[in-house]
Design goal:
Distance between the termini: 52 Å
Number of strands: 27
Structural class: mainly beta
Helix content: 10-25%
Strand content: 25-35%
Number of helices: 5
Number of domains: 3
Largest sheet: 7 strands, mixed, barrel
Strand order of the largest sheet: 12-18-16-17-14-13-19
């Protein structure tokens, strides 16, 4: 395999590795994978150095074609990976022949998947990293998210040679769900908050806001009060820093965070729990639990030890042949995720009990509508565009059919699961 051909880019697909370290003093963000554990696992499953670059796939996956034979693995969130239309088992290395298509049917559990390819994604190094920082058009594939027609280069091979059929046992594969307990180390400015503010932070439940992105996860919930205001002299930030702005709402800084910040920092999320937050979807709930530095470090060492064991020589990684006939990700899916998964495939949603309704994957603004009642549409054809999470996301037809009714207009604000259009069978006509 020398390249991956992008047939459809999906919502947001970028090249990421472990990040761009050593440049923060010059104002360059670290970037890198949001879910570092899943990226490392994908690379190890296909025989790469775990620092190799892979593709980070957000929520609505792309359609990709491999131009030659190779070994791949998809880890992280279960977005319904399919090879040649058949379910592909997650967290497993799979051999693919030349011309194989990889598609994604829709999110079941988690927000971000990682595609590891034997040999790694071979884009140029920029300041020591292949990670993409889209805001600065730095690194990755031409400094941007992938687009249809791109040919993403693949390296010359893994060392040691990649082996298909390695998989993680179910017992250590994450199940993300929609309620996330995040362990935090308090400080460095926890003394800037009132007793009530700290009590709220450690005892109340917060909700992930739609404005969250790779820069930070914005949360809403009970106010975290300051003693003397939110502003401080700007100082350094870390992956997982919890800033509290003037409105008393916490923001967890993520991979594309700025190098410094001028809001008080009440705590830092333990590194071991950052992958869970990276997989959280808007509307998910979050609770913070205080731990000490020693405990946080011990938890991270234990997680790293699991990764160190991934390799062909380990008996506990059971062999598995080819592609599963059944969707092996289904038992891991949180039942509550059905609404989001349906929205990206053949959603039903609470606003319409009909099986033919295509629904919104998350709260958003209808930017444009591309179809009208009676129009014939092909599978994958854009129906409308929703703005959510600071991105414009095309809503595509899950199958061939005829538009029965369009239920929203441009400018409408819709909730998660709201019915957008009715997609009838091609032969169906409405008077």
């Amino acid at each position: 395999m020398t390249a991956i051909v992008v047939l459809d880019a999906g919502l947001l697909t970028t090249v990421q590795d472990l990040g761009r370290f050593g440049w923060q003093q010059h104002g360059v963000p670290v970037s890198g994978a949001m879910d570092v554990w899943a990226l490392r696992a994908a690379n190890r499953l296909v025989g790469n150095d775990e620092r190799s670059a892979a593709l980070e796939i957000t929520l609505a996956g792309p359609a990709l074609r491999f131009d030659g034979p190779g070994v791949i693995a998809v880890t992280g969130g279960d977005l319904g990976a399919r090879l040649q239309g058949r379910p592909m088992p997650p967290w497993q290395s799979v051999g693919v022949p030349s011309g194989t298509d990889l598609t994604f049917s829709g999110a079941r559990d988690g927000m971000r998947a990682y595609l590891g390819v034997a040999g790694g994604i071979d884009v140029p190094l920029v300041l020591g990293s292949r990670s993409t920082l889209t805001r600065s058009r730095l690194g990755g594939y031409m400094g941007r998210a992938l687009a249809a027609g791109d040919r993403v280069p693949v390296g010359g091979g893994a060392t040691p040679p990649a082996s298909a059929g390695l998989r993680l046992p179910r017992t250590i594969i994450p199940a993300y769900g929609h309620f996330h307990t995040l362990r935090v180390v308090m400080g460095p400015q926890d003394d800037a908050f009132t007793e009530e503010g700290i009590r709220n932070f450690l005892s109340e439940v917060y909700t992930l806001a739609p404005q969250s992105d790779r820069v930070g996860c914005r949360l809403t919930g009970p106010r975290i009060g300051h003693r003397r205001g939110a502003d401080i002299v700007s100082d350094g930030t870390a992956f997982g820093t919890v800033q509290v702005s003037g409105d008393g709402m916490p923001i967890v800084l993520m991979a594309d965070r700025g190098t410094t910040g001028g809001y008080t920092k009440i705590a830092t999320v333990a590194s071991v729990d950052l992958p869970r937050l990276a997989q959280a979807a808007p509307g998910d709930r979050v609770r913070f639990v205080q731990v000490g530095v020693d405990e946080a470090q011990a938890l991270l060492r234990a997680a790293r030890a699991q990764l160190e064991r991934i390799g062909p020589e380990e008996a506990w990684i059971a062999p598995a042949a080819g592609i599963f006939e059944e969707d092996s990700g289904a038992p891991l899916a949180a039942p509550a995720y059905a609404e989001l998964a349906d929205a990206l495939t053949m959603a039903r949603g609470p606003a319409a009990a009909r099986a033919n309704a295509v629904c919104a994957a998350m709260p958003g603004l209808v930017v444009s509508v591309a179809v009208g009642a009676g129009d014939m549409v092909a599978a994958g054809q854009p129906l409308m565009v929703l703005e959510a999470m600071k991105m414009q996301n095309p809503v595509r037809a899950p199958r061939r059919g005829r538009i029965g009714r369009v239920l929203v207009a441009p400018g409408a604000q819709v909730e998660s699961g709201a019915a957008l259009v009715e997609l009838d069978d091609p032969e169906t006509r409405r008077d």
